Amino acid sequence: MTVKGKRIKTVDVHAHCAIPKASALLRRPGAGPAADGPLTLDGQMLADRLAVMDTQGIDVSVLSINPNWYDADRDLATQVISIQNEGLAEFCASHADRFAAFASVALQFPDLAAEQLERGMKTMGFRGAAIGGSVGKLELADPKFHPFWAKAEELGAVVFVHPQASGTAPFNDRLKGNGMLGNVIGNPLETTIALSHLIFEGTLDRFPGLKIVAAHGGGFLPSYMSRSDHGCVAFPAQCTPGVPTLKPTEYVKRMYYDSLVFTPEALRHLVAEVGASHIMMGTDYPFPWVSAPVDHVINTPALSDAQREEILGGTAVKLLGL
Question: What is the dihedral sign for C-alpha 39, 45, 47, 48?
Answer without folding.
Answer: negative
